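Module 6 notes. Inverse folding takes a fixed backbone as the condition and produces residue identities as the prediction. Think of it as a translation problem where the source language is geometry and the target language is the twenty amino acids. Below is one complete input and output pair. Work through it position by position during the lab.
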């Protein structure tokens, strides 16, 4: 059974910066589902895109894979020969659980789960790269280089799926999206205390960009074909095709 996220349910004397440790990894499936609007839709669509954009003898990357939800979605949908999925996370706790999770399902498609920093990863021969809510955790100064590295490692016709929480520069609509997201969390059983303590924990660790910054970064890296395919409140997913 899925373990419930109660990490911020009690008042904490000191709120430490959020980390992807054992405690978070244990409740992550519940946490992401109750916190990210559209998460299921996004993961399912990643599967559909894998079916559509697969190419023979290619690599499929899941960058910041956590428990491997996107990897599983791709793996279920790839049937071309010579496919290999590379799932990468720099949290030991996540990588261990991801491996266990993947072993629970049968598949012909080989998956390599790597404990590594995605900023140091060599990306090659990629028909598809997924970076689902992970870029936002990198220092802002490292984001351009990662997207450029992804572009270089992709095959022509390959697809990048980039999902992020986004900032809106105009204050009133920014506040509106935040309020709607908090309503969503409340409707999923998070209390005011949980919402505000989690917000403090993420303040210095998760620094979203605006949608325009994301789009510019993709363009500067070489992606001329790109579109937002999903947005709910301040959560957004883009596709870019090489
Ligand atoms: C999903 N994609 O379920 N290198 C590798 N991994 C990193 C790095 C880094 N530099 N920085 C953070 N991570 C998943 C959800 S969660 C999103 C992704 C969230 C990892 C981190 O350890 C964590 O597992 C993941 O990126 C972000 O579709 O919690 O909002």
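Target side of the pair, the amino acids:
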């Amino acid at each position: 059974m899925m373990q419930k996220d109660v990490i911020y349910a009690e008042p904490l004397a000191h709120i430490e910066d959020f980390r992807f440790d054992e405690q978070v990894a244990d409740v992550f499936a519940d946490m992401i589902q109750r916190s990210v609007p559209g998460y299921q839709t996004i993961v399912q669509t990643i599967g559909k895109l894998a079916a559509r954009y697969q190419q023979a003898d290619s690599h499929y990357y899941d960058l910041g894979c956590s428990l491997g939800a996107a990897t599983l979605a791709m793996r279920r949908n790839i049937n071309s020969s010579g496919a290999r999925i590379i799932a990468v996370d720099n949290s030991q706790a996540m990588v261990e659980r991801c491996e266990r999770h993947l072993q629970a399902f049968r598949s012909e498609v080989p998956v390599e789960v790597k404990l590594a920093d995605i900023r140091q990863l060599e990306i090659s021969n990629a028909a598809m790269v997924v970076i689902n809510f992970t870029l936002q955790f990198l220092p802002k100064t490292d984001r351009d280089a990662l997207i450029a590295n992804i572009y270089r490692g992709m095959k022509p016709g390959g697809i990048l799926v980039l999902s992020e929480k986004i900032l809106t520069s105009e204050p009133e609509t920014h506040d509106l999206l935040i309020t709607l997201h908090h309503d969503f969390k409340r409707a999923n059983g998070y209390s005011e205390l949980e919402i505000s303590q989690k917000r403090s924990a993420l303040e210095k660790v998760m620094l979203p960009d605006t949608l325009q910054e994301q789009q510019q970064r993709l363009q500067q890296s070489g992606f001329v074909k790109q579109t937002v395919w999903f947005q709910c409140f301040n959560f957004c997913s883009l596709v870019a095709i090489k």
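Reference fact for the lab report: Residues 20, 32, 64-66, 69-70, 88-91, 94, 117-119, 132-134, 137-138 surround GEK (CB under 6 Å).
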